Amino acid sequence: MTDDITRLEARLQHLEDLAEITRLLASYGPLVDSGDADAVAALWTEDGTYDVEGWHMGDRSEIHAMVNSKAHQRFIASGSLHFMGPPAVRIDGDTAVAVCESLMVLHQDGAFTVARGGAQRIRLVRTADGWRTKDRYARTLDGSAEARAVLGSISSRP
Amino acid sequence: MTDDITRLEARLQHLEDLAEITRLLASYGPLVDSGDADAVAALWTEDGTYDVEGWHMGDRSEIHAMVNSKAHQRFIASGSLHFMGPPAVRIDGDTAVAVCESLMVLHQDGAFTVARGGAQRIRLVRTADGWRTKDRYARTLDGSAEARAVLGSISSRP
Amino acid sequence: MTDDITRLEARLQHLEDLAEITRLLASYGPLVDSGDADAVAALWTEDGTYDVEGWHMGDRSEIHAMVNSKAHQRFIASGSLHFMGPPAVRIDGDTAVAVCESLMVLHQDGAFTVARGGAQRIRLVRTADGWRTKDRYARTLDGSAEARAVLGSISSRP
């Protein structure tokens, strides 16, 4: 009977991990478009990285600085959506990988336009404070082999 | 052992609540774009509210009327998508709050355009018939502080 | 006590089914836009079908051929996103139905445009290898009654 309980707990834990990761991923867009630099940075580990189109952020403080950057502040002052698609998530113990597509939609001159379509690969780790992003890698889906390889990483293990 | 079972059941219940809320949120777009006024209205409580850009609907019957309104019927007669992003959901007992971004995409003159990008905050309650929307608040992401505050409510408790 | 365990296991199984189906649905976009014909085809059963705007694919090999077709290869060589919205999923034993909206976003001449907004109904079955798509039916949301009926199928049982 104790074995049964232990087995059920492990299955529950897996689903709870998935729910927590799903929530973390769904939080990025709203937080970054609201301009909450602290909350965005807290989605990553202290040494977490974010590489988007050659803009490489090497730790939490650099992600914090990105949200407060002139470029990003211009986006949100005019209206922006960092719109993520539903992620495909794979968990392997204390690490996980998620892959999804994304749209950056900007409000400019009274109209909304799709400024970019992207491929996202997010590697996560379980920490004492819960799941956090360890590294995130994004490329524009402009036909490059590299962006397609990001999407293809959905098939590999974390 | 009975304690173990009770604890497992509580964890399961939380995940089931999350699944039900996720499904309810994912149903809005398809239902409203199919024009099913009854089914859309049934996503809310009897006294549920929906405030979108100053159009305040104060109960289920007003939400029903919105779906059947000339404005909405024109959208769906030409083709529309009320496209929701993955929601970040927080449950606290019998209440919950979800935050997400949304796109309204319209088909007009043979082309699709992003007519609006929005911020959504949806408060839900557990009823005898399951989870329902208690109030929903949507603002266009046009750079206004108010729309950004809607996104920021992701950080607060339900 | 054994009854309790059995009941908990059934509830867990339902949530695990939902998680697996959600992952399968979230994988389609990344896989098809990366051009991985094998992985896309493997989302379907051997005899699984895919009907999109009158292009009827009658089994796995025809879905494989679609990914490798000149039309699709042109899309991904230039950059494309088959962007799915969060699905509303209903499971009934060994079958399930999911409904969602979708956007096809294309990168052409240096800009991204929403080339199509769609209604998706995906019927799934449990196989020895896990959940697979049995038939998928997609229609452009251009105001047609048929496309709206696809969205409306969210209300029916699988």
Average pLDDT reading of chain A: 96
DSSP summary: helix tally of chain A: 5
Oligomer: homotrimer
Q: Report the span from N to C terminus of chain A.
A: 33 Å
Which strand-content bin applies to the residues of chain A?
35-45%
Largest protein-protein interface: A-C, 36 and 39 residues
The unreliable regions of chain A are: none
Per DSSP E runs of 2 or more residues, the count of β-strands of chain A stands at: 7
Spell out the helices and strands of chain A N to C. HHEEHHEEEEEH
Based on CA atoms alone, the radius of gyration of chain A comes out at 17 Å
Structural class of chain A: alpha+beta
State the shape of chain A.
globular
Largest sheet of chain A: 7 strands, mixed
Helix content of chain A: 25-40%
SSE blueprint and pairings:
3 copies of one chain form a homotrimer.
Chain A: H1 2-34, H2 37-41, E1 44-52, E2 55-57, H3 60-67, H4 70-78, E3 80-84, E4 88-92, E5 95-108, E6 111-127, E7 130-140, H5 145-152
Parallel strand pairs in A: 1-7
Antiparallel strand pairs in A: 1-2, 3-5, 4-5, 5-6, 6-7
Plain-language structure description:
The structure is a homotrimer of 158-residue chains. The first copy, chain A, has helices at residues 2-34, 37-41, 60-67, 70-78, 145-152, and strands spanning 44-52, 55-57, 80-84, 88-92, 95-108, 111-127, 130-140. By secondary structure, chain A is of the alpha+beta class. In chain A, strands 1, 2, 3, 4, 5, 6 and 7 form a seven-stranded mixed sheet that branches. In chain A, a hairpin with a 2-residue loop joins strand 6 (111-127) and strand 7. The model of chain A has no long low-confidence stretch (mean pLDDT 96). Chains A and C meet through helix 1, strand 4, strand 5, strand 6 and helix 5 of A and helix 1, helix 4, strand 3, strand 5 and strand 6 of C.
